[in-house]
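debug: dumping io for the single-chain case to check the tokenizer round-trip. Nothing else runs in this session.
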Amino acid sequence: MNWITSLQTAIHYMEEHLLEPITIEQIAAQAHLSPFYFQRNFSLLTDTTVAEYLRRRRLTLAAHELLHSEHKIIELAHKYGYDTPESFSKAFRRQHGIAPSEARKHSGSLKSYNRLTIQVNIKGAEPMNYKIVEHPAFSLVGIKQTFSYENGENLRDVPKMWDKAYHEGVEDRLFELNNGALKGLLGVCVDQTELQSNQMEYWIATAYDGEIPEGLSSLHIPASKWSVFEVEGPMPASMQKVWKQIISEWFPSNAYEHAYLPELEVYGGPNVAPQIWIPIIS
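debug: decoded output
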């Protein structure tokens, strides 16, 4: 199934089950993706998380009912998944800027988040610099941390992890240890959904052969075919731009599929353009 078509199928599923306590696992299954990759792709394409999209859509529909029905606020709170009128009012005010009681009196404006439709540009107006490489298995060493990706925790906390690694000298140490074929620092995303729901592991590491240094961990990366994309321009905006292009333009217009191995961001050092390495199968 086309990657974007599968995402749209999942969005349709969300819309059809907005009033039910659906899980990310159920939604991702509609797209034939793991929860990790579905959430990542969805966030890249829409600039919001799945949980936030569901919340916005439910509160949009709740506002419509407040204006066009006689249902009590407590009834609407329960209908749209809130345990108490207080929690419903808090979420409603955060989205719309007014309380449900004020909305019923038409005393303020409301925000409407419409049903999402993903549209993809595959015309190739902007060239993407990439190459296909075969790379043997290799090992890396570094530091790792687990994050939840359900509400975008990983997007907020991974940059903090990099900042801490820089200030504590971890980056310099890894550069010194780098003796593998892949040069530079690596940011590595590892899906851990099978171990715990909504969990990913992130590594700051480097390719390394030898005894595992004290205080660091080791990860094995299997042999694979990789699509390697160059990232040009100011960071981190350029990195995010290329990620979005990969998901929304490159995959839909090429015959390759994701191999579902860890993905790599490669930072070769000063005056070396960063790269994104995506494991693929053809």
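debug: round-trip ok. DSSP finds ten helices and nine strands in the chain.
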